[in-house]
Design brief:
Elements: E1 9-12, H1 21-35, H2 43-49, H3 59-65, H4 71-85, H5 95-103, E2 106-107, E3 114-118, H6 123-129, H7 133-139, E4 147-148, H8 165-176, E5 190-194, H9 197-205, E6 209-212, H10 216-221, H11 226-231, E7 253-255, E8 269-270
Parallel strand pairs: 1-3, 1-5, 3-4, 5-6, 6-7
Antiparallel strand pairs: 2-8
């Protein structure tokens, strides 16, 4: 077990971690599959799509779905379903309390905690997903310049998760906006919150600690591979740079069932409540 420094920054994924978008993505896909007489999307397939940019309309999905329509038509119908259902996304249990606590927290060294969002969702989808007043209110804890989205021009195309770029950009943005007297935050002082397997790997590749909070369906699919996931070593999306990966049982990543009752003290964070 490494001797970790106190956490100074928390960087959050969004889909399936902060709001129930994974259930919404499944609903949208299933509505189209049912329309064309195809079976509902099983977790054995969905698990390979989660956290992989563009995968919901990619080869893996279409090989399984065998839909009798062109891919472009599926993409159009999927977008229409998403326009209908994304505005009903809701925060997941524990999210409101965790974000509010971290927004006013310090670590044991007295350093102010900093938070940022790092989501593969593009801006238009982000706005749909966070349009409910209760959801919009919760996301207001993220300063606008600390919301890094999938179509951010500073991100190189084709370098989505599991590449570390989005988390490193989030840390760069935090460091550029620190207050007077605050030293730059190192990757090892960052804690990434993720629900997807590529997201965990991206956090590990960034040299950051990671909390993995998978959907129960995803957790069941990876039940016997937890240690590989936490090390970033599933090889779900090969991108090379193996030196960036962690090692099994190295203590840099943990799995939680929920964001409720978050163990702040394990990260040397002092929260008000």
């Amino acid at each position: 077990m490494a001797n970790f420094p106190p956490i100074r920054a928390c960087i959050f994924d969004m889909d399936g971690l902060l709001i129930n978008t994974e259930d919404m993505y499944t609903l949208c896909a299933n509505n189209i599959l049912e329309k064309y007489g195809r079976p509902y999307l099983p977790w054995s397939v969905k698990a390979k799509l989660m956290g992989v940019p563009g995968s919901s309309t990619g080869d893996e999905f279409h090989r399984w779905a065998q839909l009798p329509i062109p891919r472009e038509q599926f993409k159009r119908e999927q977008k229409e379903q998403q326009r209908l259902h994304f505005p009903h996304c809701k925060p997941l249990p524990g999210v409101e309390t965790l974000l509010a606590n971290l927004n006013s927290a310090h670590n044991v060294d007295g350093n102010k905690m900093h938070i940022a969002l790092a989501s593969s969702s593009e801006k238009n989808n982000y706005e749909l997903k966070t349009s409910l007043p209760e959801t919009k209110e919760i996301f207001s804890v993220f300063d606008e310049n600390r919301r890094i989205l999938g179509d951010d021009p500073r991100l190189q195309k084709g370098r989505g998760k599991p590449a570390p770029d989005i988390f490193l950009l989030a840390l760069q943005v935090i460091n550029e906006s620190l207050g007077d007297g605050e030293k730059a935050i190192k990757p090892s002082e960052c804690l990434v919150f993720e629900d997807s397997v590529p997201g965990v790997e991206a956090g590990r590749r960034a040299g950051m600690r990671v909390v993995w909070v998978p959907h129960q369906g995803l957790a069941a699919e990876y039940e016997k591979r937890d240690k590989e996931v936490l090390a970033g070593r599933t090889g779900l999306v090969p991108i090379g740079d193996e030196w960036q990966l962690g090692n099994v049982d190295d203590g840099w990543a943990v799995k939680l069932v929920t964001l409720e009752n978050f163990p702040y003290e394990e990260y040397q964070i002092q929260a008000d409540s």
